[in-house]
Amino acid sequence: MRNILDLPENYGKGAVRQDVTAGITVLVMLIPQSMAYAMLAGLPPVMGLYASIIPLIIYALFGTSRYLAVGPVAMASILVFSGVSQLAEPMSGGYIEMVILLTLMVGGIQLVLGLLNAGALMKFVSKNVIAGFTSAVAIIIGLSQIGNLLGVDVSGQNQAAGLIAELGSRIQETHLMTAGLGAAALLILITGKKIKTRLPVPLLVVTGGIVFVSMLRLDQTGMEIVGEVPAGLPGLELPVFTFSAFQQLLPTALTIAFISMMESLAITKSLAKENEPPIDVNKELRAIGLSNAIGSLFSAYPVTGSFSRSAVNAGAGAVSKLAMLITAAGVVVTILFMTELFYFLPQSILAAIIIASVAGLVNFSSLSEAWKVKREDAWVWLTAFTATLVIGIQWGLLIGVVISLCLLIHRIAHPHIVEVGWNPASKTYRDLERFPGGLVISPFVLLRIDGRIHFSNMQYVENILLEKIPHEDKKVMILDMGGVNDIDTSGIEVIERVFYRMKEKGSDVYFASLKGPVRDSLRHSRMTQLYPEYFTMRSMDQVVQDKKPDIDYMI
């Protein structure tokens, strides 16, 4: 058990107290959030509690992070609603069956990826895609909950324009008491975040809302409340499987599997301490996958790590994953003995909790940073953001990923090749475009290649090098290959063609600063066997000095 829960060697009573404190602290956040997120997913609030038991226990047994607080989150919830609401009526029995099957599929995908050690695939989704996508989804989530906040019935929409239009057309239906209570709750929640109080503000808001509504019987005025919450633990039940439902749910399952894993990995990396071992991405995939797969057998819907609850868990002093078991035990007690207390909980309070939670996910500072550093990355951010708002959540993510991959391929296919000259100030060779005052040393053409040379960029590299071949005879070209870490057979063919083209003109071309792996690849080509002196590990300086020893440009 010590190894499973990642207990430190000196784990004692003091550490147990810290874990109990952290577990209870997370619990008071989790109960209202889980019910609110279940409502966001189009599910009965009690299913948020179901999703906060078995998945937490499974992650505590198999996960790697002692701080990650697994459970329902806003992002996965809106993705569930976005994908399944098109196939069945939210809150209906058929809808719930499809969501539970979706949970099994999400867990299965994550588990298979983890078993195949495919965690590296996560690296191919740009952080700018995720930042733009997350910001847009947060706005959509906020807009989708304004109806519940105001007491207005708004049908399921996954596009910002549709939500705004429908809210505008129904604003006159606002239930004033509901809107007033929801606005007050939202103000308290936001203020609590601003002043960073240690009080469990969401739980206090929920408690206050229940007392207020039950005392004044505001439910009789038309205010929507949660109503009866079934008591008792969920039983073991296999998800209802049909091949048709599997096909329809697969795109949503893939989206949730990848997004939720990226969220969890980002959290675990940000909370990891300096003296802890690095995160095992594939083990995390397997742990989250098992949490979802086994959770689906107990009526859970897709879960992942929560940014806010994980930060609270770490800040409250959690020492081990025992804290998560304490949280799960608290949810069990709540379901068994306290569900009657939630009968008068206003839905506008849950909407306020959701809006306050997702407000921090809108991150325009990441766009500003990307714009300053690299405009291409900023356009990727904007593309993912705009596509998600305008077209829809799943298409927005897909478009963002495709644009990001296209940009990556473009960068790989166009390595940086520049002409360099001697810069007296720094006493190094510098790009002549960036440092136009550099010395062009006759009779040399000096070039630097930054990037790998392989089949995907061979034509581009060849075209650039052939353009740089001097028109005058007897010129010498020197290529600084220090920035080339790898070369394949296609790249070697390019080198050969450029080499022999220079020979035809009666000129020479030298390849300087060759790194070991590149030199190893070139060693077996006929060209290097016939002309080994043209391929060297010596620097460009040394080659220039060797070919023109009387030069005094370095003085």
Topology:
Elements: H1 13-40, H2 46-50, H3 54-62, E1 70-71, H4 74-84, H5 93-115, H6 127-150, H7 160-170, H8 176-195, H9 201-216, H10 243-271, H11 281-295, E2 304-305, H12 307-315, H13 322-337, H14 347-359, H15 364-373, H16 375-390, H17 393-413, E3 416-423, E4 428-431, E5 444-450, H18 458-468, E6 476-483, H19 489-504, E7 508-512, H20 516-522, H21 526-530, H22 540-547
Parallel strand pairs: 5-6, 6-7
Antiparallel strand pairs: 1-2, 3-4, 3-5
Helix pairs in contact: 1-4, 1-9, 1-12, 1-13, 1-14, 3-11, 3-13, 4-10, 5-10, 5-11, 6-7, 6-14, 6-15, 6-16, 6-17, 8-9, 8-14, 10-11, 10-12, 15-16, 16-17, 18-19
Question: Could you walk me through the main structural features you see in this protein, from its secondary elements to its overall organization?
Answer:
One of its GO terms (biological process) is transmembrane transport. It holds the Pfam family STAS. It is a multi-pass membrane protein. This protein is an alpha/beta fold. The protein folds into two domains: 393 residues, no CATH class; 133 residues, STAS domain (Transcription Regulator spoIIAA, 2-Layer Sandwich), CATH 3.30.750. It is 58% helix and 6% strand. It has 22 helices and seven strands. A five-stranded mixed sheet has the order 4-3-5-6-7. The radius of gyration is 30 Å and the shape is elongated. The mean pLDDT is 87.
